[in-house]
Amino acid sequence: MAPAAGVTRRVDAACPLRPGQPCTLCHPEAKLGPQDCPTVAIVMDDPDLRAEVARLRAELAAQAS
């Protein structure tokens, strides 16, 4: 069901680049989640940056276990 006209929906999606942080921390205009974030788009389009994010997330997951 779509929200009524003029109603802003709050997104609680997590940032894929900053684990544990909301996706709107860097770019408040990312209203729909990480798919709206220009920073996430740039990082995910660059193979080296994407690999580094994956490495950091794996490291963080290993520390949490």
Summarize the structure.
The protein is mostly helical and 65 residues long. It is built from two helices and no strands.
Layout: helices, strands, pairs:
Layout: H1 38-45, H2 47-64
Notes on the protein architecture:
The chain has 65 residues and is mainly alpha-helical. It has a domain at 34-64. Helices cover 40% and strands 0% of the residues. The radius of gyration is 14 Å and the shape is flat. The N and C termini lie far apart (39 Å). The mean pLDDT is 80.
- Rg, Å, rounded: 14 Å
Helix content, binned percent: 40-55%
Strand count, sense and barrel status of the largest sheet are:
none
Shape: flat
Low-confidence regions: none
Annotation, overall tally of beta strands: 0
The helix-strand sequence is HH
Distance between the termini: 39 Å
Query: Averaging pLDDT over every residue, what do you get?
Result: 80
**SS-based class:** mainly alpha
The fraction of residues assigned to DSSP E strands is under 5%
Q: Count of helices?
A: 2
Structure keywords:
single chain, 65 residues, 2 helices
